[in-house]
Structures are given as structure tokens and as C-alpha cells.
Amino acid sequence: MSNPSYKIALIGYGKMGKTIEQLAISMGHNIVAKFDSNNPLTEEKLLASSADFAIEFTRPEAAAENISICAKAQVPVAVGTTGWLNKLPEVKATLEANSSKMLYASNFSIGVNILFEINRKLASIMSSFPEYGVEIEEVHHTQKLDAPSGTAISLAEGILDNIPDLNGWSLHENLKEDADDIPIKAIRQDDVKGIHHVTYTSSIDKIEISHEAFNRNGFAQGSILAGIFLCKQKEAGVYTIKDFFKSL
């Protein structure tokens, strides 16, 4: 029996959107709408597309409004944009009011989500070794506007959940002297898909875990599979990438 074909609306049609389009078509799905600055998203256009779900990769300042439009149209949406979570409470309220659903992720890559699990396990071990200092470094393409990356923040949160002596995280250049924060270096270089390092350093040695994306296909595949997962969920509201991976 062949896998079902889904009708997908793309919200954001830059490099990521084009990668999703190519992969989705190769998987047997249909792209029924493409929204960007030349074809702005509206509830009417989204409804007319008859999309089963939408995938949103745009900009931090646009994400919350795009999700709200999807909610009002009752189209499930997988959101890969980062840097907008300060608006999550109002987005959640809109989703619930419209009996709609979304899934958001700081990173849809399967490899990165494996890194998240390793990161949490390593942090729980390192909590017994305070002589090691920890830092995070992330490198992305120059078009990425938010810093640090959502993935770096997720890594920091995984460490903070397991090392209670740390207070929070700060961008490296903003780190206050004697602050018990995790420093995050955010570097922007041409045509870098995404590199993340977590490093523990003592006077004796260094321990490091890392992930490097060679292309955008991992993010695209994860977002498509997350959208399909959303379509199968009966409950309205907010889902995370953890919910998706629990279903695998």
C-alpha cells in the first residue's frame, strides 16, 4: 500500500521553502500554495488552497501572525522559524480559540534532535564535575537574523535543566564578569547551513559534542514529517518536536 499524498502550503519561499518543495514532490506530495512577500499569506488564500497542512519558514517578526492566520483557517502548521517564542502565549490562545494546532521546533533535523538527547545526558554527568566550564558555539549563514540560534538556546536549556549551579545563558559578547551563565558564541559566515558545538573545558582536558548540517534536506524532511504527524493528531493546541519524536 502506498503512503498517502498530502497537500502542502509553503509559508516562506526562500532557500528553505524551495528545498521543502523539491523534497515534498519527490515524496509524492503536492505543493498547493506558496506564500512570500510577492504573494502574502491571507486566510482566504490559504482556505482556497485546500491545504492539509502548512510549513512556515519565514522571519521572527512574521511568524506569530502567520501562525494565527493558519489557526483561523484551521490549517495545521509546522513552524521552523525561530526567535518568536515571546509571542507563544497569544499564539496558543488563538490556536485554542479556533480548535487548531501547530508544531514548532528550534530544529527539525533528526541529527540535531539526537544531539539534544546526548547534550542532556552529558550535562547530567558533567553536573558532578564543576571544574569544567561549558560554552556553546553556533555558526550559520549571514541571512540568519536571530542570534543565538534557536538550536543553541535549546542546547543551553538542556544544560540548565541538568546543571543547577548555572543561572542562564548569554551571548558571549554580553557575558558579565563572574556570571554563572553559559556563554554562546554566534558566528555568521557565508553559506553555512548550521554548525553547533557544546564544549566542556577544564585545566586538564576538553570534551566536545557537535553537529554540522551539510545541506537543508534534513530540516526539510523533518518539517514535512512533522506536518504529517500534526494531521493525525486529534487534540488542538501546541505540539513540539519532542511529541513528534515520541511517535516514531
Automatic annotation (TrEMBL):
Q: Where is the Dihydrodipicolinate reductase N-terminal domain?
A: 7-108
What reaction is this protein's catalytic activity? (S)-2,3,4,5-tetrahydrodipicolinate + NADP(+) + H2O = (2S,4S)-4-hydroxy-2,3,4,5-tetrahydrodipicolinate + NADPH + H(+); (S)-2,3,4,5-tetrahydrodipicolinate + NAD(+) + H2O = (2S,4S)-4-hydroxy-2,3,4,5-tetrahydrodipicolinate + NADH + H(+)
Q: What PROSITE patterns does the entry give?
A: DAPB
Domain named Dihydrodipicolinate reductase C-terminal is located at 111-244
Q: Which residues form the active site?
A: 140, 144
Gene3D superfamilies annotated for this entry? Dihydrodipicolinate Reductase, domain 2 (3.30.360.10), NAD(P)-binding Rossmann-like Domain (3.40.50.720)
Question: Listed GO cellular component terms?
Answer: cytosol
An example Pfam family from this entry, by short name, is: DapB_C
Q: Tell me which residues bind (S)-2,3,4,5-tetrahydrodipicolinate.
A: 141, 150-151
Cross-referenced HAMAP family, in alphabetical order?
Answer: DapB
User: Partners and quaternary state?
Assistant: Homotetramer.
Mind telling me what this protein is named?
4-hydroxy-tetrahydrodipicolinate reductase
What organism is the protein native to? Luteibaculum oceani
